[in-house]
From TrEMBL:
Molecular function terms, GO-annotated: hydrolase activity
InterPro entries on file: AB_hydrolase_1 (IPR000073), AB_hydrolase_fold (IPR029058), AB_hydrolase_sf (IPR050266)
One GO location term (cellular component): membrane
Keywords, comma-separated and alphabetical: Hydrolase
AB hydrolase-1 domain residues: 22-250
Species whose genome carries this gene: Pseudomonas spelaei
Upper classification of the organism: Bacteria, Pseudomonadati, Pseudomonadota, Gammaproteobacteria, Pseudomonadales
Keyword Transmembrane appears in the UniProt entry: no
Source taxon at top rank: Bacteria
Keyword Hydrolase attached: yes
Record's protein name: Alpha/beta fold hydrolase
Length: 267
């Protein structure tokens, strides 16, 4: 494990393998541990970097307001620190938002983009949107992280044979710093770069679980706004696709990256 400093915050990352750089960015309340089923496979082909976002995992949890552009600035600092340009960038959920922000702000740093169960904006527009977020916001404040982890585990991994995934989810979620978790939650609401998606000209793969929180139709809408993107739907999966369908996810991602690598070599 390794650390680097950015704006007074010590951030944790891990590096594996050799080749073209490939960065994996986890979601809210998670850490680089949640890529455990990807690391051994992807590190055989790429210089793989997994990072704990500020406020998460083994990175510092400064008492301050967090923002998606702020998380992205940390990532840019890591890219510069490790000379990872240009890199393939994969983001899950909130990690996908950070990946989107990076690709619109610093397109030269991104060789390809893979967005998993995410969106280019989280706008609270309708009464129903407002109610959904108000409910999640209140529950996040009232409930213990252990209780939230248990509830999420049951929702994300409902099958009897997924007991181990449920146990890990509960255990890992409980280790979050509550204040940092809430600050990260607040960073998502109201964020968006949808109107700037035309700036993302690199090859983009959008992965959606068939049972993600948001319907596949929503992903179809923003995929049309991206100049070079395609959508792949993974069946029998929920929000944590890399954990509940690791083999299909890994194969889908490697096929995409391989195509990008081959195409760029030909040019």
């Amino acid at each position: 494990m390794a650390y680097f400093e950015h704006e007074g915050c010590t951030l944790h990352y891990e590096e594996y393998g050799h080749g073209t750089p490939l960065i994996l960015i986890h979601g809210l309340g998670s850490s680089c541990l949640d890529w455990e089923l990807q690391v051994p496979v992807l590190a055989q082909h790429y210089r793989l970097v997994v990072v704990d976002i500020r406020g998460h995992g083994r990175s510092d949890k400064p008492r301050e307001r967090y923002s998606i552009p702020g998380f992205t600035a940390d990532l840019v600092a890591l890219v510069e620190h490790l000379h990872l340009t240009p890199a393939h960038v994969v983001g899950l959920s909130m990690g996908g938002m950070i990946a989107f922000q990076l690709a619109v702000d610093e397109p030269q740093l991104v060789k390809s983009l893979c967005i998993v169960n995410s969106a280019p904006q989280v706008k609270v527009r309708t009464a129903s949107d407002y109610w959904q977020w108000a409910k999640r916001w209140s529950l996040a404040r009232i409930l213990s992280l252990n209780t939230i982890g248990k509830a999420l585990g049951t929702m994300l991994f409902p099958k009897p044979e997924q007991a181990e995934l449920r146990r890990k989810m509960t255990e890992r979620w409980a280790k979050n710093d509550k204040r940092a978790y809430l600050a990260s939650f607040d960073a998502i609401v109201g964020w968006g770069v949808q109107e700037r998606l035309s700036r993302i000209t690199c090859p983009t793969l959008v992965v959606s679980a068939d049972h993600d929180y948001t319907p596949v139709a929503q992903k179809e809408i923003y995929v049309k706004l991206l100049p070079d993107a395609r959508l792949v739907v993974i069946n029998d999966s929920r929000h944590a696709t890399p954990l509940d369908q690791p083999d299909v996810f890994n194969t889908t991602l490697l096929d995409f990256l391989n195509t990008v690598e081959t195409t760029t070599q030909d040019h």
